[in-house]
């Protein structure tokens, strides 16, 4: 992703004034400009933000009051930097939306003596095996699954539950390394892919690969905010998955309807409450994923962070609910802002991908095609970027969003995302 629309431009952060009584949040890492700016725009309207980041700020400057460059994966250094900030400012909470840093952010919260987020709760959600165990013990529908450290263990489990099976890393996100294995003879290659995928800075388990029963049905996710154990669903997103062996588990898009009946469905509301109680998650924000089969709503993952893929932004566009602000409120110890001012609409997002693994030499977005119901077309890469398609990498190179009165209208508008983008590049080797 491009770090900044004007990378050579130097901008000073907002200077706090004597009348600026906004509470201060420490923001751990800022991530990609294209996919995250909407979060800072919302949160900075109510909170002063002090950024702790591995690199100096660029695009973040208009939204922060200060920053510290620090290794955000070193808890001692991160804590020391945060305490320096706390010596000069009263810190209301620690805010983080990045998968890589969410667990250490919870540890930082505890080190600063703040009540939210609880590091044990966050760690339990980050660990798919621990989540599965907690949900199963609570009697919630779950696919059969186990964590394994070897191909032999994976094969024994797959033989027991039957093919197809799913392989996934125990604590990664973004569908990295997720594989569907149809036949026993395909297991070894798939296991090697899943076992070999890493995301820098995320702790490793000896039994790193999850093997689980394949469930057939549509996938959804729900954005939830929790305060004192009470779970409130904000957004339901219906996943659109890719096709072909490499893209089969890639979320190539999402559809959000503010009138989605699942938002108020009694079974869904009860399942959300029970799932968070089972995981022991009482205060914070979650992105929880489900597989809907004919017989049950199966909880697949509980992620202790804002949903990716611009899902909170789609919620803002369709109902006016500001999930980013609600997440910031709860870590600041406040009652979360939960408002749906409307009008209630529908939105679809589709992501752009290069046709093959490549080093990008040119990339353009057809912004001239932006007309209702197409709301926005954004480029998310630049020349020099080395892009590998899943399961070896994160390859989203842009997105197109449509907003309308129905999902039929918005889905049709973004049905061919390739027409909004042009990519050229030098092919890379297939293997990572």
Could you list some keywords that capture this structure?
alpha+beta, 432 residues, 11 helices, globular, disordered N terminus, Rossmann fold, D-amino Acid Aminotransferase, Chain A, domain 1, Dna Ligase, domain 1, ATP-dep_AA_Ligase, ligase activity, 8-stranded antiparallel β-sheet, 4-stranded parallel β-sheet, ATP binding, metal ion binding
Description:
With 432 residues, the chain is an alpha+beta fold. The protein has 4 domains: 24-114, Rossmann fold, CATH 3.40.50.20; 131-137 and 215-344, ATP-grasp fold, B domain (D-amino Acid Aminotransferase, Chain A, domain 1); 144-213, ATP-grasp fold, A domain (Dna Ligase, domain 1), CATH 3.30.1490; 350-432, no CATH class. Helix content is 26%, strand content 28%. It is built from 11 helices and 19 strands. It has an 8-stranded antiparallel β-sheet, sandwiched between helices. Strands 3-2-1-4 form a 4-stranded parallel β-sheet. A 4-stranded antiparallel β-sheet has the order 5-8-6-7, sandwiched between helices. The radius of gyration is 21 Å and the shape is globular.
């Amino acid at each position: 992703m491009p770090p900044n629309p004007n990378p050579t431009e130097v901008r000073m952060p907002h200077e706090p004034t004597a009348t600026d009584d906004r509470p201060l949040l420490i923001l751990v890492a800022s991530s990609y400009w294209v996919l995250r700016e909407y979060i800072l725009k919302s949160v900075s309207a109510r909170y002063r933000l002090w950024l702790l980041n591995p690199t100096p700020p660029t695009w973040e400057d208009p939204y922060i009051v200060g920053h510290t460059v620090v290794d955000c994966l070193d808890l001692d250094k991160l804590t020391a930097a945060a305490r320096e900030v706390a010596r000069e400012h009263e810190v209301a909470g620690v805010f983080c939306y990045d998968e890589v840093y969410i667990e250490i952010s919870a540890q930082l919260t505890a080190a600063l003596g703040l009540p939210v987020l609880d590091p044990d709760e966050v760690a339990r959600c980050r660990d798919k095996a621990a989540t599965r165990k907690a949900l199963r013990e609570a009697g919630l529908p779950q696919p059969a699954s186990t964590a394994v450290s070897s191909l032999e263990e994976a094969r024994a489990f797959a033989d027991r539950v039957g093919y197809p099976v799913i392989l996934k890393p125990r604590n990664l996100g973004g569908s990295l390394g997720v594989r569907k294995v149809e036949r026993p003879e395909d297991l070894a290659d798939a296991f090697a892919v899943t076992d070999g995928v890493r995301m820098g800075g995320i702790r490793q388990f000896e039994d790193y690969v999850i093997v689980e029963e394949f469930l057939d049905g549509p996938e959804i996710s729900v954005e939830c905010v929790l305060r004192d154990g009470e779970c409130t669903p904000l957004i339901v997103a219906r996943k659109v998955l890719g096709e072909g062996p490499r893209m089969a588990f890639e979320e190539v898009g999402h559809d959000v309807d503010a009138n989605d009946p699942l938002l108020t469905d009694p079974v869904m509301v009860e399942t959300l409450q029970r799932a968070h109680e089972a995981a022991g998650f009482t205060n914070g924000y979650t992105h929880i994923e489900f597989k809907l089969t004919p017989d049950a709503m199966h909880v697949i993952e509980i992620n202790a962070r804002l949903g990716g893929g611009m899902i909170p932004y789609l919620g803002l566009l369709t109902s006016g609910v500001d999930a980013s602000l609600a997440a910031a409120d709860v870590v600041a110890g406040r009652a979360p802002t939960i408002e749906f001012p409307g009008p209630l609409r529908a939105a679809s997002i589709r992501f752009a991908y290069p046709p093959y693994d490549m080093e990008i030499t040119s990339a353009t977005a057809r912004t001239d095609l932006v007309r209702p119901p197409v709301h926005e077309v954004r480029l998310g890469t630049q020349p020099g970027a080395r892009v590998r398609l899943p399961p070896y990498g994160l390859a989203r190179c842009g997105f197109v969003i449509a907003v309308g009165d129905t999902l039929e209208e918005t889905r049709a508008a973004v049905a061919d995302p390739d027409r909004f983008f042009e990519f050229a590049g030098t092919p890379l080797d297939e293997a990572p």
